[in-house]
Amino acid sequence: MMLMTENVQGRITLSHAVEILSSHGLLRELIAGEVWADSLESLGSQLGKDLSSIVFSNLTYDSRTIDSASLLVCKGRFHSSYLDQADALGLPCYVAQEDFSSATKALGIIVTDVRQALALLSAAFYGDPASQLKVVGITGTKGKTTTAYFTHAILSAYSGGKAALLSSVDNCVDGTTFTESNLTTPESLDLYRMMRQAVDAGMEYLVMEVSSQAYKVQRVFGLRMAVGAFINISPDHISPIEHPTFEDYFYCKRQIAANSDNLVMNATMAHASLVAEDARAHGAGLSAFRLVQGESGSAHHEEAEDSRLASLPTVTASPLDPDPTLGFRISDGQGFSKDFRLSIAGDFNYANAAAAIAIVKSLGMDLTDPAIAQALEAMEKVTISGRMETFSSPQGSLAVVDYAHNGVSTTALLDYVDKAYGKMDPRIILVTGSAGNKAYDRRQEIVQAAQDRIARFIFTEEDTDTEPMEEICQQMDQAVTNPQVEHGIVLDRTHALEEAVRDAARHQEEGGMTVILAIGKGNERWIKHLNKHVAYEGDDKVLSRLLEA
């Protein structure tokens, strides 16, 4: 399914656009042919024209969609040849970081940062819809999607369906219709269009994932969150086309603290003290969540907890039993305590549930209010296609499909398998690849996380982009150093899953149990090759079909 594309009308005048850019220190100059000016009034005076009456009804960053009412934003790898038809189509104005007057007669608004300009203009074009919503932004290395779904379910139940959702899996702008997402955080123009749709549909809340790239490339520049949530942090998305270093990745994610009225954070995450300092420095209200494990109730630490964090209002999740299928208890130390059992597997999701409850509490909701307490139960019904989906064969083999795509998430998945099925001593087969052209460290990290805990690797295609899939698989295969683990390459992903199921059947005949872990793709119905999305049945569909056969 594609993103909702209902026509949403927007409008902005040239004078308002220039005023916005000037007030934010982004305006460099205005250029109309040989005439240059630093204000619209000066330009109009030199041209002998009243420019204040110009109105744009089409704000776009795609030169293929321009018309005589368009304001074109020239972002990214924009080339002057994209303006070859601009004059013939009547383009009146463009926004760019460079002068394109040699390519078009259109008025040029030259800015210092075109991506920031796009975000600000998009908000104004659609009537500042964010100000009409209570926006919840969620960031972190893992758990963003699940936390967003939990939070959305609670707010939807509480508000009678008046909660919108923007996630890496699905988007929902009307409270009921879910459509497939293309980006974790949409481009700013698309983001504000969807916000406008949400407002027009009567939504009161918007829950959205906020990626590190969204801050790095200014998709959410100027967007203020009622509540921001920082779920966790670990090295990821480090590559020449994403973040050059972990510091850059973490810094971009930390911007959520500067752009939130209230910040909810994992009290035991790595570098928690720095995140708390960010929040305090920007005047954000600060609260926390945590997962405790074991009979002693000790915190699940990613780093030693700062003593200053211990005094924060904290929502705590604690398992009811070492068996992760038996549920958990949430308490806030202020009179609220309630037991839950999730439909989505994995005790690591208890932390995501605690985060969701901390978020709604940070929105000002009283957890002891019976209406709120009832709304919280909506979390228990949440399932997310491609996230911890379990399939089984009549003979007892199991398969788990998950989007795990780095070492940390692979470790969490294997921890869950050990807790849920370890007593059965299963043969574990991991079917995995790794994305091309980015996050190169993931390849070795996945292998290192799994090689001492599984019986067999089957390396296969993922979203290879422009990298040869054989090279990615060979790099992962060569990273295996444990001589006890079986490993090999089956390039076709469907064939790789078929081989895993055949292996499980052979092991079943010998009286053993097998758990197949298919990671990296979730429920996606495509594989990206050479900048194209090639149709793919989906790990969930393939395994369901094979195991039922």
Structure description:
There is one protein chain. The chain has 549 residues and is of the alpha/beta class. 32% of the residues lie in helices and 23% in strands. The chain has 3 domains: 12-124, Udp-n-acetylmuramoylalanyl-d-glutamate--2,6- Diaminopimelate Ligase, Chain: A, domain 1 (3-Layer(aba) Sandwich), CATH 3.40.1390.10; 128-296 and 305-379, 3-Layer(aba) Sandwich (UDP-N-acetylmuramoyl-L-alanine:D-glutamate ligase); 389-548, Protein-Tyrosine Phosphatase, Chain A (Alpha-Beta Complex), CATH 3.90.190.20. The two termini are 28 Å apart. Mean pLDDT is 93; it is low at 1-5 and 300-304.
pLDDT averaged residue by residue: 93
Indicate how many domains the architecture comprises: 3
CATH architecture level-2 label of the largest domain: 3-Layer(aba) Sandwich
Q: What is the CATH third-level topology name of the largest domain? A: UDP-N-acetylmuramoyl-L-alanine:D-glutamate ligase
CATH homologous superfamily label of the largest domain: Mur-like, catalytic domain
> Can you tell me the overall shape?
globular
Total count of helical runs of at least 4 residues:
16
Largest beta-sheet details? 12 strands, mixed
Tell me the distance between the termini.
28 Å
Please give the radius of gyration in angstroms: 25 Å
The structure class reads alpha/beta
SSE inventory with pairings:
Blueprint: E1 12-13, H1 14-23, E2 27-32, E3 35-37, H2 40-47, E4 55-56, E5 58-60, E6 70-73, H3 86-89, E7 93-96, E8 107-111, H4 114-125, E9 134-139, H5 144-159, E10 163-166, E11 170-172, E12 179-180, H6 188-200, E13 205-209, H7 212-216, E14 225-230, H8 246-258, E15 260-266, H9 272-281, E16 285-293, E17 298-299, E18 314-319, E19 328-331, E20 337-340, H10 349-362, H11 370-376, E21 389-392, E22 398-402, H12 407-421, E23 427-432, H13 441-450, E24 456-459, H14 469-478, E25 486-489, H15 493-509, E26 514-519, E27 526-529, E28 532-535, H16 539-548
Parallel strand pairs: 5-6, 6-7, 7-8, 9-13, 9-14, 10-13, 14-15, 15-16, 16-18, 22-26, 23-24, 23-26, 24-25
Antiparallel strand pairs: 1-4, 2-3, 2-8, 10-11, 11-12, 16-17, 18-19, 19-20, 21-22, 27-28
